[in-house]
Amino acid sequence: MLPRRGWLRGLDSPRATEVQGDLVAVLRNRRTGQRCIVQPDCVIGRSRDCALQLEQTQISSRHAQLRWTGTEWEARDLGSRNGTFVNDRRLDPGVPERLRKGAVISFGVAEQVWVLDDDGIPQPMIVSLTDGVVSPLTQDLVGIPSPDNPQATIYRSAEGAWILEPTDRPSLVLENGATFRVGEQDWRFVCYDLAPPTTVSSQAPAVPAARLSFAVSRDEEHVELTLICNGKRFELGSRARNYLLLTLARHRLADAATGLPETSCGWIYQEELADQLGTSVGQINVDVFRIREQLRTLNLPALPEVIQRRARIKQLRIGFVDNEIRTL
């Protein structure tokens, strides 16, 4: 029988190098070649609650544990009937054994011999509670269940916190072990905190002077977008999704011209926006994700949120107050 949980999505794909090496710790089954990410506190056994679930009857319900100590990985046997072995040496129950890259770990039976292919520091990750698939958060902006269907976004804030932003609910700060639902699937957020506690600053962070400049062709077939931040220009090119931002900028400028307070300017229902653009709400979510992804590659601190949401009433607006529109 094969283990059913903890698999790393896409590990054997051409993009596998993006999540290997020092980024994660990876176990490989020596007989089958299958691999899984090691979570910071990884219990192995037959129980459905185990991060790596093995189904042989010779495996105890909670057989062994692999754990990140903050400086290294260690293994310990949890009092299993048939034992846990590291490099052919049986572990005493409850006594930790230091692990190094290449260590061979056996769980009770010959079919369950694993090799620690990588021993990197555990990264923040999300774990599907449906099929146990583990997805490391190797970027600061991730679409769930995928970038092509982002029903929710997880991103790292300027303060270092991880934020879950569903398209239909208010945003949530994710703590280690938090569970959440996106679409029809449940997930768990796992994050080993390597950082010291955040100190409280008496000064508010400086917000850069930022403006979005739109250059629109007369037939409106092309929209060139430029970000101007602290006097520097960042050319963001002409993409179809720029028309979404242009439409939102026009709404915000029009509301401001009527004298509405800034907090009320620019909000539009997503269904109404989809009708105006001749697209779907799903495509709007994809475009919003791609726009955010593009701006984050600039690595500019404390930029305004490019898109703001009122999730409960399904409204959104452009987050930049300063927008200029000119015709080419």
Describe the structure.
The chain is built from three helices and 26 strands. It has 328 residues and is mainly beta.
Average pLDDT, to the nearest integer?
Answer: 85
Shape: elongated
Largest sheet: 6 strands, antiparallel
Topology as a string of helices (H) and strands (E): EEEEEEEEEEEEEEEEEEEEEEHEHHEEE
Backbone CA Rg: 24 Å
Enumerate the strands of the largest sheet in spatial order, edge to edge or round the barrel.
2-1-11-10-7-8
Stretches where pLDDT falls below 50 for ≥5 residues?
1-22
DSSP helical segment count: 3
Beta-strand percentage range: 35-45%
Task: Tell me the helix content.
Answer: 10-25%
CA distance, first residue to last residue: 64 Å
Number of E strands: 26
Q: Output the structural class.
A: mainly beta
Helix and strand arrangement:
Layout: E1 25-29, E2 35-37, E3 41-45, E4 52-53, E5 64-68, E6 73-77, E7 84-86, E8 89-90, E9 97-99, E10 104-107, E11 113-119, E12 125-128, E13 134-136, E14 141-146, E15 149-156, E16 162-166, E17 172-173, E18 179-182, E19 185-190, E20 210-216, E21 223-229, E22 232-238, H1 242-257, E23 268-269, H2 270-277, H3 281-296, E24 307-310, E25 315-318, E26 323-327
Parallel strand pairs: 3-4, 20-26
Antiparallel strand pairs: 1-2, 1-11, 3-5, 5-6, 6-9, 7-8, 7-10, 10-11, 12-13, 12-19, 14-15, 15-16, 16-17, 18-19, 20-21, 21-22, 23-25, 24-25
Which key phrases capture this entry?
single chain, mainly beta, 5-stranded mixed beta sheet, 328 residues, 6-stranded antiparallel beta sheet
In brief:
This protein is mostly beta strands and 328 residues long.
